[in-house]
Automatic annotation (TrEMBL):
Keywords for the protein's UniProt record, in alphabetical order: Coiled coil, Kinase, Membrane, Phosphoprotein, Transferase, Transmembrane, Transmembrane helix, Two-component regulatory system
Catalytic activity: ATP + protein L-histidine = ADP + protein N-phospho-L-histidine
Organism: Amycolatopsis albispora
Location within or outside the cell: Cell membrane
Pfam families reported for this sequence: CHASE3, HAMP, HATPase_c, HisKA
Name the record gives this protein: histidine kinase
Amino acid sequence: MTLLATITVALLAGVIVAGVVALENLESSRARLVDEIDPGLIGAQTLTSALLNQETGVRGYLLTGDRRFLAPYPQGLAEQARAVGQLRDAGAQPGTVPGADLDAVLARAGEWQRLADRWTAPGAPPVGVAQVEQSKAYFDGVREVLDVQRAHYADARADARDGLDASASFLQWMLVVVAVLLIVLFGALYLGFRRAIARPLQKLASEVRAVTDDDLNREVSANGPRELVELGADVEDMRRRIVAELAELKRAQDELQRSNSDLEQFAYVASHDLQEPLRKVASFCQLLQRRYQGQLDERGDQYIDFAVDGARRMQALINDLLAFSRVGRKTGEMAEVDTAKLVGQAMRNVEAVVEETGATITHGELPVVHGETSLLTGVFQNLLSNALKFRGEDPPEVRIEAERDGDDWVFSVTDNGIGIEPEYADRIFAIFQRLHPKSAYPGTGIGLAMCRKIVEYHGGRIWLDTDPPAGHTRFRFTLPVHPGTSRAERTESESP
């Protein structure tokens, strides 16, 4: 392909040189025709007209003897002088054919003019028929050389036109040849480009697409120009790094899954196994409290109260921990559920607190989602309980709303409670984390952690809105719009 391109370029250069020569010939022919032949032909016609005017005037005088007929003669002489100058300027110089023709015309015309000057001079004797015939004979000789001059100019003009046409035709053919050679050259360059760059680049792109389509074990290589080979090597290095990082990420993910599974199993076993001894402790403490209340001193009664309260709180913590560990382990049926009905059930579950606090709970239009009824009800109930628990001086006002954002429903629970500082936005979702002492607000501190686990189990996320309306607290969480995107269903689909 390189040899073909080289030959084509060489031919193209030769054709261009030939075209330049043809263009110069064309310009030379045009200049000769325009600058010499056409002006010379016009000058010859002017000279012929001037001599004919002279002959007309002399013949009229010779025939009539009236000098008034001589008027065209001096005018013709003046025109002759101008015509000769024009012919000299057009190239009729000595040593050239036009120059020789002009000299011949002037010589013959000079002989006739000398006779005419003698016959027409003032005081010259009258002339007769013989002089008229003699004048005609001399002027016929002038006509002959004028005809020769015109013929030479006509032939020169025809030759120049032929040369001009030939040069133009040759130049046109050169343009055609140049066009053909350019097409061949571009074709060769295109084929060379495809072979040297396009095909290797397409191969590299195909291998890269295969890698991006999850065929990460496919090696990427490239041939062709050095830059393309280096690009292929860079892509291969990147693929290997990605494979290594994904393997490390998979290992860490598996380790995290095992760790979470172990923690959940430990929490379940610990909470389940602790139930029986803790019930015994609580039962005996309550028995002591009922049987010996008032029989011990004040400090003894206080100790028994502390033991009973601690046992109850421990039972609550273990029950909460057990419920927390069961999320994702003991699951109910996933189905289409109306979140408005879930909110209604959650409101009934906290009805006593609502009546006690004079709270107002409202909600907008809520969607139907895919999930477990009991778990999602627990999310709304925990958020409502927090809103009612952490209230300010005014009666609680809680508003539940939902709006669609792409493939998610975004729920918001807004209240006019005491608020949460933004720096605690992550801490509040950790298990058993409290921002207030248990003496101020009852509870185990597991409610929001439970909400996060349930929401994530359904394929969503939950967070504290750090920029709520003034004087309000707002929690937001998402649930998928379409079924099949919750973690439970993904787990089921991935199971063998």
